[in-house]
Amino acid sequence: MSPKKEFGDFQTPLSLARRVVTLVRQDERRVGTIVEPTCGVGAFLQATAEVFGKSPTYCGFDVNAEYVQAASAALARIGPLQVTVQQRDFYTINWQEFLHEQAEPLLIIGNPPWITNAGMGVLGGSNLPEKTNFQGHSGFAAKTGKANFDISEWMLIRILEALQGTRAAIAMLCKTATARKVLRHAWVNGLDTGPSSLHLIDAATEFGVSVDACLLYTHTGTGGSESTATVYRTISFDQPLQTFGLFAGELVSDIDAYRALRDLDGLEYRKWRSGVKHDAAEVMELTRDNGSFVNGFGEQCELEDDYTFPLLKSSNLGARQIVLALPRRPRAGGFAGRLGGVGGFSRGLFTWHRFSFSHLTI
Ligand SMILES: C[S@@+](CC[C@H](N)C(=O)[O-])C[C@H]1O[C@@H](n2cnc3c(N)ncnc32)[C@H](O)[C@@H]1O
Questions:
Q1: Is the CB–ligand 1 distance for residue 125 below 6 Å?
Q2: Average pLDDT of the chain to the nearest whole number
Q3: Per-domain residue ranges of the chain
Q4: What is the pLDDT of residue 276?
Q5: Residue 172 Cα, ligand 1 centroid: separation in angstroms?
Q6: Model confidence at 195, in pLDDT bands (50, 70, 90)?
Q7: Chain-centre distance for alpha carbon 11
């Protein structure tokens, strides 16, 4: 197996690290400690040292001993600095203890490994954190730890959690999806997060990989609890694209568009469950018959409403038996309500084909 793959190893070009540091420097004028948790050959350590000079302490870690040597050498060439660069495994560092001992404000900067736990499984690698249910899954997924995640997502969440109550800026390259998941985790769990932004990068040009990637720039210890982030086209604050954020517990990809159109979101949601196993259909699929339920064996069944759900099969759609099913009682003030209820809504906007509600257990 290629060690490069197992360690998600894509070294950041120095030119990109310098652009990131130039952006960060606009906001972070004074920094006590600069930490690169998986520093590689040290592009970010070098770029920060060029800009922040002698006053901060520089700490870099990497699991690869040759990289650690290269990073130390890169810093030594810049001049006498307060430096700790060590061969360490991210998973064995007590981040909370370490970060709380450092001079504030901190700048955590870098580019964690680019690999998912599933990708690691395929490679047979072991560079993984201990199984935890950090994504807050329930049921089977939580028990098996099955859910796929990026190693960088896990690492970034560890760092964010360890920084609670500490004044810090975090500037990390990662997949755009990872950045969103990390911020969502922070917002949903009420972590102390200050101003946040995403700055898109061209990963094909910078790293030779075809993936949506960005700089995630966020803060802790600001005393605020913000739950929105603006996405910028480049590593600058010049071209904002959209602002995403948490709204009523859900991640909304464009907050402004959502606010403008939010009345359309007045319809009740039906929970979508993924179907009935074929050989259980006789027992699980029921039809209404004179107010009670009948199963596939023709037996009458008594069931609580709580445990009966509408069933729509792909075969119903294929046979064009059901074209559109709306909630029976649109919420007052909702879009359908304003148009005069289901009748008005359907007549005005949709053609209803033959309904087969006899097949639905509602
Ligand atoms: C995407 S590369 C980025 C390197 C460097 N941060 C940069 O920006 O150029 C990821 C780095 O993480 C290191 N790494 C992978 N797993 C690690 C672990 N468990 N602990 C510490 N470093 C690790 C790899 O050796 C590699 O240098």
A1: no
A2: 81
A3: 3-263, 278-359
A4: 62
A5: 12
A6: very high
A7: 23
